[in-house]
Amino acid sequence: DLRAAAMRVVVAAGLRDALTAIDASDGRVRVTFADVGVEAFAAFVDLAGREELLFPAEVLLAARVTPGQVRAEASFARPPAAR
Predict the structure, then answer these.
(1) pTM to 2 decimals?
(2) What are residue 23's DSSP bridge partners?
(3) How far apart are the first and last CA of the chain?
(4) Residue closest to 54 by CA, chosen among 16, 1, 18
(5) How buried is 49 (Cβ within 10 angstroms: 0-12 exposed, 13-18 middle, 19+ buried)?
(6) For residue 60, which of 79, 35, 81, 32 has the smallest C-alpha distance?
(7) Range 61-82 average pLDDT
(8) Could you read off the pLDDT of 10-39 as tens digits, one per residue?
């Protein structure tokens, strides 16, 4: 279950409170953080690949008013061999 896998990574990365939305469909999981540190998001992406074999397919980062903070929307998928 991609949604459960992504949620495990969110919790492991300590970003549960920053999570705005999570949705899985069509073999991808989309995760949205309304306001997250760019370094924390980068660590989340790294952890998703290492722990759950979830790799970014699409990423959108939008700067927030606070320096170093972004709105992050990302879709993740597993490689065909990992499914």
Answers:
(1) 0.92
(2) 30
(3) 10
(4) 1
(5) middle
(6) 32
(7) 93
(8) 999 999 999 999 999 999 999 999 999 999
Neighbour count for residue 74 (Cβ, 10 Å)? 22
User: Does residue 71 carry a pLDDT above 90?
Assistant: yes
Tokens of 82: 């990992």
- The CA–CA distances, whole Å, from 63 to 22, 34, 35, 60, 68 equal 20, 10, 9, 10, 8
DSSP 12-54: HTT-GGGEEEEEEETTEEEEEEEEEEHHHHHHHHHHHHHHH--
**Closest by CA position to 22, among listed 2, 47, 48:** 2
Residue 72 identity: A
